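From: lab user (bench 3)
To: helpdesk
Subject: output format question, protein + adenosine-5'-triphosphate

Hello, I'm new to running complex predictions and I'm not sure whether the block I got back is the full result or only part of it. Here's what I submitted:
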Amino acid sequence: MSLKIDLVTKRFGSFTAVNQLSLDIPDKQIFGFLGANGAGKTTTFRMILGLIDATEGAITWEGEPINYDKTDKIGYLPEERGLYPKQTVKEQIIYLGRLRGMAKKEILEQLNQWLERFRIPDYLDKKVEELSKGNQQKIQFISAVIHNPRLLILDEPFSGLDPVNVELLKNAVLKLKEAGTTIVFSSHQMDTVEELCEYLCIMQHGKPIVHGSLKEIKRSFGKKNLFIHAD
Ligand code: ATP
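Helpdesk reply: Thanks, we reran it on our side. This is the complete output you should expect:
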């Protein structure tokens, strides 16, 4: 288990957003966080990434807290999407790749492969503001994975996409897992989590109400009860 969350609590003033969360997230697997709005998924991700500090408890990756010297090994797709509207796709990704220490040639090779995979091969020189929301989301996904991270955190990666694009992104996630990436993602939908994950945590009001391997959880609770808990 390389990513460990140990009795983590996050309070904002008197409000507890995450309450005594403990999880071992297995290496090179897909781990899903399932929960309704406000369950504490994004707050957990932001603590994993070191963007905000836990009020109590500790999070470590490969035995150490995640700090900025690990940025080039981690990819993050935030829930709130944000690209530079006036830049072209090429400029955007080159800029982000360079921040992670990549050479321009390597960035462009990777980018072209991703655009091909996402069925938008001729989008290199399009300005971000000209793209549909779905295509912007695909570019944002590419910006999270362009440097081949070993740990990838995806906050509701499939929300707002049409079924074809959801499939494209799901396939991309599965391919990254095959290549050895540890992937953590959040969703409101049990079906998506069930399709992609070996392991999951269902959160409600900041608390993990159940976590472990999907097979074991389904055996213990049955699918119907999982839906009831998740909502
Ligand atoms: P969603 O599916 O809506 O994104 P979530 O499970 O990701 O939900 P969080 O965004 O982690 O939930 O929010 C958990 C709770 O913490 C919410 O009630 C939210 O309002 C609160 N919260 C998050 N960030 C802050 C903050 N900076 N200050 C105060 N409250 C916050």
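A quick orientation on your result: The first strand starts at residue 3 and ends at 12. Let us know if anything else is unclear.
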